[in-house]
Amino acid sequence: MRWDLINAYIKKYGFKSFLEIGHDQGIAFDRVEIDLKESVDPDETTHPTYSMSSDDFFEKYSTKYDIIFIDGLHEHAQVDRDIKNALAHLNMGGVIVMHDCHPISEECQRHTFVYPGGEWTGDCWKAYVKNRALLPYDMYVWDHDWGCGVIDTNMQRSSELPQLPTIMADMEYAEFVAHPDWMNFVVELPM
Ligand SMILES: C[S@@+](CC[C@H](N)C(=O)[O-])C[C@H]1O[C@@H](n2cnc3c(N)ncnc32)[C@H](O)[C@@H]1O
What we know:
- The chain is globular.
- With 191 residues, the chain is α/β, with parallel strands linked by helices.
- It has helices spanning 2-13, 54-60, 76-88, 124-134, 173-178, and strands at 17-21, 36-40, 65-70, 90-98, 137-142, 148-156, 185-186.
- Helix 3 (76-88) packs across helix 4 (124-134).
- It contains 5 helices and 7 strands; from the N terminus they run αββαβαβαββαβ.
- Strands 2-1-3-4-6-5-7 form a 7-stranded mixed sheet, with helices on both faces.
- The two termini are 16 Å apart.
- It has one domain (2-28, 36-137, 163-186): 3-Layer(aba) Sandwich (Rossmann fold), CATH 3.40.50.
- S-adenosylmethionine binds next to strand 1.
- The site of S-adenosylmethionine has 18 residues, from strand 1.
């Protein structure tokens, strides 16, 4: 599960601080094992460390973290902003994990939350693809638990990328299905 991946990176690099965007019921938060952990969520009933949106949090605070988990509002523009802001709030050698990068159907990844079938990934995958095209890091999606995208800033890009689109609004689910190489899915943890 997502916390296994997060805990594996904490152990690998000896990380000390963690931020989760999107606390919700604390299912992941409670299972992350690290010295300092904080969360941000605009829904105060979830009892996050900071009750506000991720945009407001990043604007207000300049704290840096070793590892940041992006799992707030699952809309591509928001996830893209969360990635940009998380990179700016990451300690040197830090890692970003982003949830819900592998939708299982077109409905599941609809832009707005109108999916009645349970899990809704939203279209986070589009922000992953854009950032994979633009960032200088090797990126992959651990293909478990709805797809966990990873940006490990210790891993400079080492191989040629497939042709990747960068305009999120133009990305279509049919292309996502036709081009699994856009995501770089892995089943085993490459660490
Ligand atoms: C899918 S749940 C998070 C699940 C949790 N991360 C876990 O692994 O168990 C999404 C959460 O993001 C919160 N959220 C929505 N918009 C947000 C925003 N702009 N910034 C931060 N959190 C947001 C919601 O209130 C909700 O609690």
